[in-house]
């Protein structure tokens, strides 16, 4: 897509859905000359090699990072600090160090102390994904028309910021700059709360004695199944998100619960007007999301279940 | 699909997503000879006529029902009683009267007193739909591979039950028989709670001062947008569901809230193991739903946003 590659050697630490998608996008679009991949699981590393995602593979993160001018941490956010300590001695001056974690203030707190002078540390978060995980789940168009949020610390080198922004733009994304704390608040409502609510409702259904699991499964097309997608996301990733964005998540959970109590009260007391008003104003938001190009306008997500008779 | 039509004249009272889909399916598959359509809104009735959904159109439900051997109430559940009173005088002996409402005990309570002797009243609920509403939203494959629950009262005529079952089977559905109270409990967890939670979270996001609406929209692909689909459903229908399945919904809401409090506590106290365990067991349910043919196995619902570069 571009002429010369933006980077000589990109090191990906972690090769799940996001790492794998970055590798495939960067390779397909010629954004980097060489790709080094490291992950602590030998089985996952072998799978990455079978998929030919990189040029160099090692379970030793420091070996992968050695000589890299772009280092991207693609591990669950709880693992960032240990990785930063590990690679710190081999990070070369002038290199850009970034990550893809769903929380940003925690990454700043945990990684910054281990970044050597002369290395440009610019935390990042591509707002893209599916419910699947692992290197096989990656694909090269994952970042197209999505947003990537960067949270450059004060005094960040402008050239490094522009280069990293260019990388994400070539990956297909629009780049936004944000304060890490504000990022964490925004993501708490648009991503963390939805996932937690989804996990929670699926758990509640799983626990019922009065309705069997097979009934939940059979009739799930009436609404429930939508939640099971988010609730099938990677458990380690989401445990780490909870532990690393505690304050913002608790704030959003508590607002959600307050609103739910008000709804519960309206149902108990038969306040149809309150319910009708709420159910009406929520429609507009979906319309706006579709207009912003962040959602399909096909009914039911354009979903086709294992339905061979459906011909549209 | 079959030989002779199952019914001479089918009357549809209400012609939204479900009524329109029934009309199209029945016509396409030759299940009825004649289709009479009634709805109280002249504009909607006119639209149904433009779409050529039926053979006879009237804002007077009694006129549509006159001479029908199959009458299907396709109105929001709160309107069933008034419609039943209205059509009661013209329901002919031997006719089958059914409905498509999302609550069943309320329909039994509100409609039964108005059913003349000799009319077979068999409440029903096809578990199918999209977030869209109105006659334009209907399509003839909506019921394929879905379930239709019938709640025949004690002493229901066996031949009538078989005939109505055959109708739904020809529409593409599997028929289940259930007690109305149990139906209401099952639907409270698989359908009503998911919709209410979705409406609630979208409402919570809409109310925030710290995160702007445009940020919620921009970054919605990270989870939030999934909820906006259910929260775009028909407000009148869902208000009526809440008012007519109060007990079961309050029971499920209270279980959900308890579980949410436990999760909130785990987050506050950093109980990663509790979170990891919950996030792990919820994955299995999605797998089961996919295996049961009630969900697509494509990542992200196979959704393609307004994404022209995505080529898979």
From TrEMBL, chains A, B:
Give positions of region: Disordered: 293-312
- What is the top-level taxon of the source organism? Bacteria
Pfam families referenced in this protein's UniProt entry, alphabetically:
PDH_C (PF20463), PDH_N (PF02153)
- Annotated Prephenate/arogenate dehydrogenase domain ranges read 8-297
Q: Which Gene3D superfamilies match?
A: 6-phosphogluconate dehydrogenase C-terminal like domain, NAD(P)-binding Rossmann-like Domain
The record, for InterPro entries, names: 6-PGluconate_DH-like_C_sf (IPR008927), NAD(P)-bd_dom_sf (IPR036291), PDH_C (IPR046825), PDH_N (IPR046826), Preph/Arog_dehydrog (IPR050812), Prephen_DH (IPR003099)
Q: What does the UniProt keyword field contain?
A: Oxidoreductase
Q: Per the record, where are the segments of Basic and acidic residues compositional bias?
A: 300-312
Would I find Oxidoreductase among this entry's keywords? yes
Checking PANTHER family in the record gives:
PREPHENATE DEHYDROGENASE, PREPHENATE DEHYDROGENASE [NADP(+)]
Name under which the protein is recorded: Prephenate/arogenate dehydrogenase family protein
User: What's the source species for this entry?
Assistant: Roseibium porphyridii
Q: What is the lineage of its organism?
A: Bacteria, Pseudomonadati, Pseudomonadota, Alphaproteobacteria, Hyphomicrobiales
């Amino acid at each position: 897509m571009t002429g010369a590659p933006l980077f000589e050697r990109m090191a990906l630490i972690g090769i799940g859905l996001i790492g794998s998608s970055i590798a495939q996008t960067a390779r397909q679009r010629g954004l980097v000359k060489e790709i080094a991949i490291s992950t602590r699981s030998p089985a996952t590393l072998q799978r990455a090699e079978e998929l030919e995602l990189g040029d160099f593979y090692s379970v030793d993160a420091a070996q992968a990072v050695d000589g890299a001018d772009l280092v991207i941490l693609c591990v669950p956010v709880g693992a960032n600090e240990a990785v930063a300590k590990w690679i710190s001695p081999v990070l070369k001056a002038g290199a850009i160090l970034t990550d893809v974690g769903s929380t940003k203030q925690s990454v700043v707190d945990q990684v910054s102390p281990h970044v050597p002078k002369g290395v440009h540390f610019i935390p990042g978060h591509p707002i893209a994904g599916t419910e699947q995980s692992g290197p096989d789940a990656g694909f090269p168009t994952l970042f197209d028309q999505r947003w990537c949020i960067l949270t450059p610390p004060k005094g960040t080198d402008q050239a490094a910021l522009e280069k990293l922004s260019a990388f994400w733009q070539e990956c297909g994304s629009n780049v936004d700059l944000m304060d890490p704390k504000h990022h964490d608040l925004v993501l708490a409502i648009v991503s963390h709360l939805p996932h937690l609510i989804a996990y929670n409702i699926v758990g509640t259904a799983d626990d019922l004695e009065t309705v069997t699991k097979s009934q939940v499964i059979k009739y799930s097309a009436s609404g429930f199944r939508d939640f099971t997608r988010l609730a099938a996301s990677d458990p380690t990733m989401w445990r780490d998100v909870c532990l690393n964005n505690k304050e913002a998540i608790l704030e959003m959970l508590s607002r959600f619960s307050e609103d739910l109590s008000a709804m519960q009260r309206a149902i108990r007391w038969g306040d149809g007007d309150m319910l009708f008003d709420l159910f009406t104003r929520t429609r507009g938001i979906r319309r706006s999301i579709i207009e912003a190009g962040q959602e399909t306008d096909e009914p039911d997500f354009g979903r086709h279940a294992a339905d061979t008779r459906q011909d549209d």
